[in-house]
Amino acid sequence: MIGYAQLWAADPAAWRTAGSAWRGVVGLTDRRTAELTGAAATLRTDWSGPAGQAADRRLHGLAAELTASRPVFIEVEQILTTYAAQLTRAKAMLDAAVRMAAGRGVLVDRRGTVSPDPEALRPDPLGTGNQPDARTAAAVADVADGIAAALELASIADRDAARQLADLAAGTGSGWADPPPTGPPAPGTDPAAVRRWWADLTPAQRRWLVGHEPARIGRLDGVPVRDRDQANRLLLARQRAALLAERGALVAGRLTPGVPAELARIDRTLAGLDVIGDRLASDAGPRAYLLGVDPAGDGRAIIAIGDPDRAENVLTYVPGMTSDLPGVGGELGRAELMAARSAALDPTERTAVVLWLDYDAPDFVNKAVGDGQAHDAGPALHSFQEGLRATHEDPPARQTVLGHSYGSLVVGVTARDHGLAADQVVFLGSPGVGVDRAADLDLPTAAVWSSTASNDVIRYAPGPAELAGRVVVGAAVPGFGLTAFGRPADDLWFGANPSGPSFGAQVFEGLPSGHTGYWDAGNPALDAVARIVVDGRASA
């Protein structure tokens, strides 16, 4: 059991630094693997016969061992970084308990012993000495409970980290990686079945799959978050190298029509991958987990701020029109803001926020007037949420799914057509969610939330029928003019306004901050979203 003085003196930053060092070993391993592969290729051209063949096998064997070790290094980093995060949380709980003591007439000594302040005592009528009153006695109990909870959390985290590192070290004797008897389940397999398959594998078999099939494992709903993160971090390096090679080939070749545009696309995609890479390498804020990445087309990414498998609260954020991999920094910033605000409102619980940019969002308004891309996204969002349920540890998390703009249509259509593994949904700046009543989302109406800023342009985009009526009126009434977008609409392009009275959602207000200002500093809408995530209500 970690003691009071130990926790008070603990330095989570030192464990974070140690984790970063292990993460850096992956890059060193990649370089050494490339050197071995290159040396083998050189030797193969100049050295034949049995000795040359033996040397070639040995070099390839060493390269294979280095490749097998890469997931292990990421795993060590995950363990140490998670331990650092838990220590940070435990220290915050300890600090809160000590501050509570200072404000409630309670003393805490250097060993963590809690006692009433002598000045708060009053004489006992029976003559047995000075005794605390009921209020002071309750304060002593509250502070002692707070300290005990902090120490218990730190002790559990310490034991978990020690056990995981010991298990990892024990695996070095029999090998870190071992091929499994069968390959991964097919894409689209029920996430619960995937979870059972993964649980039946040995740790060495899981590492083999992560190292040898990162593209399949990294996107497989039902594989735990930590393992998906390992696979996608390895995949990210490969994808970036492939794009750089493709760019080099285009630059080296004779420029033809279309090549400059393709170079520009590659450069934008590389910039997006670099934003993701920088966040994955950052020690600022909660650890980021890469749950999916695909540079094809406009690009896709799934990034979690915090570990969804271990968090008490999990928010999945679905962005809207123009969202793509090159612009991932802005959407990731919004996820960070929601994670930070949720943690500030309730530091005693873990909250993870997932940026789910795993669909082809409309590029322009002319595409956003159709719901085809929302329909296409439905199966993937449904499967992802089912996967979060399947892999979550301990008691189930409170799952929230938030859609902004066209992303709210994606959330609504998914809930309507496929079902959504969520306890509550939130719509921000919605053009309609594909249904006209909150009850049609197959969720309790008390779990459906919505907010639309008073000056959000989306409020002035009426549905097709109302738009046609306004055009007719504008043409028939002298002096009325064409006012198709001149006033707020009750029926929006994709159904009833979820922030309107007829829809039946729980509506919360924010500042008049336009279509993208819901995350602005000081906007009550951001606080409301965070409160919904951590305790299911929009106000204190």
Structure, briefly:
The chain is globular.
Walkthrough of the structure:
The protein is α/β, with parallel strands linked by helices and 540 residues long. The protein has 15 helices and 14 strands. The strands form 4 sheets. Strands 5-6-8-7-9-10-11-14 form an 8-stranded mixed beta sheet. Helix 13 links the parallel strand 9 and strand 10. About 4% of the residues have low confidence.
The 3D shape can be described as globular
Q: What is the H-and-E element order? A: HHHEEEEHHHHHHEEEHEHHEHEEHEEEH
Secondary structure: helix percent:
40-55%
Distance between the termini: 35 Å
> Care to count the β-strands?
14
Q: Which regions have little confidence, pLDDT < 50, spanning 5+ residues?
A: 467-485
Widest beta sheet: strand line-up: 5-6-8-7-9-10-11-14
Q: Give the structural class.
A: alpha/beta
Mean pLDDT: 88
| Strand percentage | 5-15%
Count of alpha and pi helical runs: 15
* Cα gyration radius (Å): 28 Å
How would a textbook summarize the main sheet?
Answer: 8 strands, mixed
